[in-house]
Every structure is written in structure tokens, then in C-alpha cells.
Amino acid sequence: MANYIDLFAGCGGLSLGLKNAGWNGIFAIEKNKDAFETLKYNLLTNSSHFNWPDWLPKTNHDIYDVLENYEEQLKQLQGTVDLVAGGPPCQGFSLAGKRIESDKRNNLVHAYIEFVKLVKPKMVFFENVHGFTIPFEDDKVPFSVIVKENLEEIGYNIKSQVVDVSKMGVPQKRKRFILVGSLDNNVDNFFIDLNNYSKSFLENKGLMVEVPIDEAISDLLKENGVYKDPTFKTLITNNKAAMLDDYINSGNTYRYTYDISGINYILTNIINQKFWLDKF
């Protein structure tokens, strides 16, 4: 069975998809503590999905620390990893945001490339926002080209494209830059195959090509009932009172702010994505 490493893993959405597709996880790297705790809850604590190596603690990690502290262990993985997948933070590239070229998170793209150089997986998968393909200035090269050229220098056959995910059953008009690469195989037909397969996939799931948002999440309206997850407050606040009931009963579907020990926490309707993942 094919295996993978998930970088910038967030709460584990990509790992969950790969799990459902029959892949085995090796480990996942995510800096944010709450996001990693969500991934850990779903795919480590309550699942045996990852064959996690003993040398890497099962906690949140900054990818720069992993590259610095575990370089030799990563090199020893060469020849054993089928896929390195990940999408570095998109805030600095997004057309919907301020799009700041100097955003330090933009440099995490190079951390992804460095990780691939050390591990040399058979395949790579990379995703980001549409703005990743647009240069910050007319005379500059877009980051999408930088990633492609760097991976080609390592030896990967690369194919990339901006994909409209609303055409693939996602209830949101969103375009994503997708890049795939292989050391040994030609990937020129990847996006043709993806388009052809997505149609039969949606048909088998009984989904339309373009799914309206109300069809996707209207059952989550409060009028349809409330489910109180008893693990929610423990996961977010380490056993300190979070006033979760006030949040749920407030009817606030965007965010709720409260203070614990002088720290200001903001709960969005998706911060504890463990809650939603458990229901699917």
C-alpha cells in the first residue's frame, strides 16, 4: 500500500482524504498546536493510520526545526516514501487578502522544496491558491514557476494547473493551484485523468458537478438541533473552562471571543474541526 508524508498538515484534511483513498501515513508536520491536536485526535489517538517513526515526537512541529534537527533521519527515508504532499500557507499569495510579498510565511515554500530534496519521495503533490501563479510585480517570476523549476532540478517530471474545485463537487467557487510530480513516471495526463475520474466519482456519490452550499451544510443550522461535543472544551483549553455552552447557545455562526488567564482566544465555527470530521 502506498504511503505519504503530509507537510503543513493543518487539522488533517488532506491526510483524511488520502486515508479514505487507501494510503498509509508516515507522519505529518504542522506548527499550530490546536490544528495538530485535531489531526492527532482523529488520525493518531483514534486511528492507526500513521506509522509514526520513533525519532519524531507526536506533537506540533515547525518545519524549519524538523529540517534542522532531523536531517539525517529524513535522508534515511530516501527510497521508502511514495509521496510528500502539502500546501504551504497561502495568506501572502491570496488575491482575497493583502497579498504581501514580504510575508515571512511565503518562504515556507522553500522549506517544502528542501524537505523533498532530503527525502526524495517517488512523487510530490503541492497545492496553493490561484494567486500563487501571479507574480508580485510584472518583472518577477511567480512562485509557481520557482517551485516547478526547483523540483525539476531535483529530477521530478512536473505538471501543474489551476483547478476550479467547484467543478469537482466542492460547494464553493474556489480555484486552487495544483502541482504533481514523479521521479519515474510521466505526469502529462494527470489533469486529464483527474477531470475524467471526477465525473464518475461524483456520479457514484450521487453528487452534482456543482453542489450548492445549502445542500452541503443546511443540516448544520441550529434549527435542526444542537450537538454538544464533550471533548471540545478539553481540546482547546487544556481543561480550563471555555464557556462552550455560551458559544453554542449564542447562535453565533462566525466567532466568539473570550479570555482565559489573560490570553484572548477566538473560536470560529471551524476551529475545532475534529468536531466536524467526526461526523463524516
Could you explain the architecture of this structure?
It is globular, with a radius of gyration of 20 Å. Helix 5 packs parallel to helix 6. It has 280 residues and is an alpha/beta fold. The protein starts with a strand and ends with a helix. The C terminus is likely disordered. The protein contains 11 helices and 8 strands.
The side-by-side strand order for the widest beta sheet comes to 2-1-3-4-6-5
Helix/strand order: EHEHHHEHEHEEHHHHEEH
Strand content: 15-25%
Question: Low-confidence segments, ≥5 residues, pLDDT <50?
Answer: 233-280
Question: What distance separates the N and C termini?
Answer: 24 Å
How many strands appear in the DSSP assignment?
8
Q: What is the overall number of helices?
A: 11
Q: Please describe the biggest sheet, giving its number of strands, its sense, and whether it closes into a barrel.
A: 6 strands, mixed
Helix fraction?
Answer: 25-40%
How would you sum up the global shape?
Answer: globular
Q: If you compute it from the alpha carbons, what radius of gyration comes out, rounded to the nearest whole angstrom?
A: 20 Å
Whole-number mean pLDDT: 78
